[in-house]
């Protein structure tokens, strides 16, 4: 089992901490139940995991990152890239934490969800008459 985590900022200003986990794969015709990677192999795999996550998240907005997390495209990229170091299986993004959110911008929110509506409704002030 090899775990890695990386802090990365998206293009729209969110700071995310992404946790990735991968399991070492048994060789074909292997009798032993366990298969362990050596320390330097684990270290190199961890480095590849963090590099791939940084490259794939830094150039996208948060909604695009979430869209890519659903089909698990990060995991397939990591599995392909780490295969030559040590074969992995069941690679997945275990958790994503939002560490910092960008400052709230009402103008950007209104641009995102369409035009502003200029029609206003008048609300009468409550009177001091008792309710019946």
Automatic annotation (TrEMBL):
UniProt GO molecular function: structural constituent of ribosome
Keyword Membrane among record annotations: no
Xref: Pfam families: Ribosomal_S3Ae
This protein's record includes keyword Ribonucleoprotein: yes
Keywords of this entry: Cytoplasm, Ribonucleoprotein, Ribosomal protein
Listed name of the protein: 40S ribosomal protein S3a
SMART domains reported for this sequence: Ribosomal_S3Ae
GO CC annotation: ribonucleoprotein complex; ribosome
A single BP term in Gene Ontology: translation
């Amino acid at each position: 089992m090899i775990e890695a985590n990386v802090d990365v900022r998206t293009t729209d200003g969110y700071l995310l901490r992404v946790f990735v986990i991968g399991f070492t794969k048994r060789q074909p015709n292997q009798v032993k139940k366990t298969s362990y990677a050596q320390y330097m192999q684990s270290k190199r795999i961890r480095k590849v995991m963090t590099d791939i996550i940084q490259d794939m998240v830094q150039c996208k907005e948060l909604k695009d990152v979430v869209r890519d997390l659903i089909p698990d495209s990060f995991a397939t990229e990591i599995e392909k890239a780490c295969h030559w170091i040590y074969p992995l299986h069941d690679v997945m993004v275990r958790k994503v934490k939002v560490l910092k959110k960008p400052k709230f911008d009402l103008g950007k929110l209104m641009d995102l969800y369409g035009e502003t509506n200029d029609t206003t409704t008048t609300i009468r002030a409550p009177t001091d008459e008792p309710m019946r």
